[in-house]
Amino acid sequence: MADGYSIKIEREGGKRETLANWLTSGWNHDWLRGLISEGKAEEYLIHGILKIYKARAGDVIPIISNDDLLNADAGGVKRNPEAIANCAPDEILEISLNDGW
């Protein structure tokens, strides 16, 4: 198993599309810890190496728009600007962390 995570932010339901994805080394997810501790994100599923959290777009989009907060490895963050622009602030997003890249 590798020392890092593949992270993906997706719209859920019938609109399912990826807003952003990136690789990061170790557990460098202070932004996610912050959302959890503020009650703005909640754990939805933990299944082996996969962890899924849910949070509102209005709380997540400002974070995924700021590279300095994400600790992305080389290659940076791949964003889908159209999908990001189409999210309502109260829309629920899935934050998937896969500890296996």
Characterization of this structure:
By secondary structure, the protein is α+β, with helices and mostly antiparallel strands. The protein has one domain. It has 4 helices and 6 strands; from the N terminus they run E-E-H-E-E-H-H-E-H-E. Strands 3-4-6-1-2-5 form a 6-stranded antiparallel beta sheet. The model has no long low-confidence stretch (mean pLDDT 87).
Show the helix and strand layout.
Elements: E1 4-11, E2 18-25, H1 30-37, E3 41-47, E4 50-56, H2 57-64, H3 67-70, E5 78-79, H4 81-85, E6 92-98
Antiparallel strand pairs: 1-2, 1-6, 2-5, 3-4, 4-6
* E-strand count: 6
Helix content: 10-25%
Oligomeric state of this protein: single chain
Distance between the termini: 7 Å
Evaluate the radius of gyration: 13 Å
Question: Keywords for this structure?
Answer:
6-stranded antiparallel β-sheet, 101 residues
Entry summary:
With 101 residues, this protein is α+β, with helices and mostly antiparallel strands.
